[in-house]
Amino acid sequence: MDPLGRAQLLEFLKKEFSAENLSFWEACEELRYGEQSRINEIVDSIYQQFLAPGATRWVNIDSKTMERTLEGIKTPHRYVMDDAQMHIYMLMKKDSYPRFLKSELYRNLLAEAVIPPETKKRVFPFMRKQRHSSPSP
Predict the structure, then answer these.
(1) Hey, what long-range contacts does 39-42 have (CB within 8 A, 24 or more apart)?
(2) How far apart are CA 88 and CA 69, in angstroms?
(3) How far apart are CA 90 and CA 94, in angstroms?
(4) Which of 90, 88, 96, 56 lies closest to 69, judged by CA?
(5) CA 43 – CA 78 distance, rounded (Å)
(6) Which candidate, 39, 32, 8, 20, places its Cα nearest to that of 107?
(7) Can you give the residue ranges of every domain in the chain?
(8) How far is residue 65 from each of residues 69, 71, 79, measured CA to CA in Å?
(9) Rounded CA gap, 111 and 48, in Å?
């Protein structure tokens, strides 16, 4: 959800030659939450960019997922890419993202982070815990 964090992840993925995975995931999000009138256009764009033979930003999904997705795009709808999107998400979750968390890019991002003050509020502010000092031994 953090735009700066996502941009840093994309930079990391570019260095790892797998930026197409995040781009595919984002395109699928656009399909899911975008305008109803653009569904056919977005499905076609996703297919051409990421799934078609010889696609410039081809993503690696297993054959069963590819079969289901290709069958589904014959009648495009908002959720037609869900299986393929989940497959790519799991690849990133189990492989790319853990490596990103260990990267220097991420360490630098953390070092520059501004930590907001505590924002958690008590449900009932009048029920504050009394602070008692414990007797020293």
Answers:
(1) 39/76, 39/77, 39/78, 40/76
(2) 13
(3) 6
(4) 88
(5) 8
(6) 8
(7) 3-112
(8) 6, 10, 14
(9) 39
Local confidence pLDDT in tens for the 137 residues of the chain: 888 889 999 999 999 999 999 999 999 999 999 999 999 999 999 999 999 999 999 999 999 999 999 999 999 999 999 999 999 999 999 999 999 999 999 999 988 887 665 555 555 555 455 555 555 55
Its pTM stands at: 0.79
Both tokens assigned to 2:
């953090």
Closest CA to 81 of 61, 96, 95: 61
Q: Name which of 100, 88, 89 is nearest 15 in CA terms.
A: 100
Q: Which amino acid is present at 45? A: S
Residue type at 134? S
DSSP 37: G
What is the C-alpha separation between 100 and 87, in angstroms, rounded?
A: 19
CATH number for the domain formed by residue range(s) 3-112: 1.10.167.10
81 DSSP 8-state letter? T
